[in-house]
Each structure stands twice: as structure tokens, then as C-alpha cells.
Specification:
This protein is of the alpha/beta class. It is 50% helix and 13% strand.
Length: 274
């Protein structure tokens, strides 16, 4: 698990990347030159060639036009899972879908499963490689992930947030107000708990980064650790134990459920006045 498992998406993506590298090389084009021809950045071409980014249909179409490969990359793109997530993230998606409980710590942003479309769009559009059609694809995929909370038997979702998440402006004040009201409403669901670690706590165990622990009835716990590049997915017992202990410490430092929900509503009103 720590090194990632192979899957259909990963294989198809690897084939797309290999064909792109080979075709570009035969055409005598550098990444910069190809990027200029298809009106995308060279860094995005690099990400696709390294299987870090799933190409969109528009990207594939422009490759076929620029490299004179009618339909080749378009057909290969159709074999990819309809998802903009990189190959390494699919191990986590599998764990998330199969989880009976998710314990989630976030020091910077609202967790993806609880984001509104407006909030998600503002975050994703801020990326250095943001392209309009890709942003919309990623927003749609993020909203689709949230469907696990609407199942007949949804996972137990226990979220602990730093108060800074509520105060950090993402998008417009209207987007922030909508997001915090949505958080408060979701916190009213029977299987969703949202708690906030107040700012007065100061330094605490969660400042090192975001993480999630997924629990399933028929498997060992799996952790997802956020990094500045690729996230890390692991089921190593020692790492799982360390992260679980950290979550328990953060939960103990957080406000009770009722007080946390009151704070969400209170801060939402401040965004309305901004």
C-alpha cells in the first residue's frame, strides 16, 4: 500500500504517457515546443508524461492536431477513468469509498468531502497549472466524491478543523459564508461530526499537516498524509498508530460539537458583513 497499487487507470495513464513521449520525440519536439503548439504549459505536458496528471479530452484533441495523430490520443483518453485525479491518488479513493469511518484533520482548508462547489473552484483555480476546463472537471470530480455521504449507509465522518480554516478567505466573502453555513448544516447530520480547535490553543500537534484515517470493517486502517506534492497513502501499522494518536490529541483540544457548530455560524455571519 505504501508504494501504491497498480490499477486500470494507472496502466492506461502509463500507456498514454509513454505514447506521448515517443510521439513527441519522433516529431523532434521538446516539451516547450509541444506546449506552445497546443497552448498548454510545458509543466503540464511534463506532468502528463510523468503520469502525475490525467489528460483531459481537450488536451488529447490538441495533441492529435499538433502531432498529426488523428484520434490516437483521443481514443487513449477515453480508456482513462473519467477522473482528473492522478494515478497515485486512486489508492486513497478506493480506501475512501470502502471506509466505514473517516477521521479527518485539516489545519488549512475545508475537507474536500465537505466543500461547496464555489469553494472547491476557488481552491483549484489557484493552482499554478490551472486550466479552465480542467478546473471544472476537478470540481465535478470532487463533488462526485461527496456522494459517499448520501449513501444508505454512509461512513462515519469525524472532522477536526483549525479555526484558521474558518478565517482564511477562499474566493469571495459570499463563497466563504456559503461554505461555513454548509459546514454547519453537514455537522447536523447523524453520522457527521465537525469540531474546531480554537485559535487560543496556540501551537498544537496538527500544525505539521493535514491527514485522514480510513477505517474499513474488513481491512486494516489506511492513512492519507497531505504533502506539498504527491500525497502519501500507507497502511504501515506504526504510521497509522502515530497518526491516530495525533487525531485523538487534536480531538481532545477541540471545542465540543455544539460549541463548534455555533462558532461556524458566528464566523459565517462575519463573512456576510465583509
Amino acid at each position: 500500500m505504501a508504494s501504491g497499487r497498480n490499477n486500470g487507470n494507472g496502466s492506461a495513464l502509463a500507456m498514454f504517457a509513454a505514447e506521448l513521449r515517443a510521439t513527441r520525440t519522433r516529431a523532434g519536439l521538446s516539451r516547450d515546443e509541444l506546449a506552445a503548439r497546443i497552448s498548454y504549459s510545458a509543466s503540464l505536458v511534463c506532468l502528463v508524461e510523468n503520469t502525475t496528471r490525467v489528460p483531459t479530452p481537450a488536451f488529447a484533441q490538441r495533441l492529435d492536431e499538433a502531432l498529426q495523430t488523428p484520434g490516437t490520443f483521443g481514443r487513449m483518453q477515453e480508456h482513462l477513468r473519467a477522473s482528473p485525479f492522478p494515478a497515485w491518488f486512486h489508492d486513497w479513493l478506493e480506501a475512501e469509498r470502502g471506509a466505514t469511518a473517516l477521521r479527518w484533520w485539516e489545519p488549512m482548508l475545508v475537507p474536500g468531502l465537505l466543500q461547496t462547489a464555489g469553494y472547491a473552484r476557488a481552491i483549484l483555480a489557484a493552482g499554478p497549472e490551472a486550466v479552465a476546463d480542467e478546473v471544472e472537471q476537478m470540481v465535478s470530480a470532487r463533488m462526485e466524491r461527496q456522494s459517499i455521504l448520501d449513501r444508505d449507509a454512509p461512513p462515519l465522518l469525524w472532522v477536526v478543523l483549525d479555526e484558521a480554516v474558518l478565517r482564511r478567505g477562499v474566493g469571495s466573502p459570499a463563497i466563504m459564508r456559503e461554505q461555513l453555513i454548509h459546514l454547519a448544516e453537514m455537522a447536523g447530520r447523524p453520522r457527521v461530526t465537525v469540531q474546531v480547535v480554537p485559535a487560543r490553543t496556540g501551537a498544537h500537534a496538527g500544525l505539521l499537516g493535514a491527514f485522514i484515517v480510513a477505517t474499513a470493517d474488513d481491512a486494516s486502517d489506511i492513512v492519507y498524509l497531505e504533502t506539498s506534492a504527491n500525497g502519501q497513502v500507507s497502511d504501515l501499522p506504526r504510521l497509522v498508530a502515530q497518526v491516530t494518536l495525533r487525531f485523538d490529541m487534536l480531538r481532545a483540544a477541540a471545542l465540543p460539537q455544539g460549541d463548534s457548530r455555533d462558532l461556524l455560524v458566528k464566523v459565517a455571519d462575519t463573512w456576510n458583513q465583509t
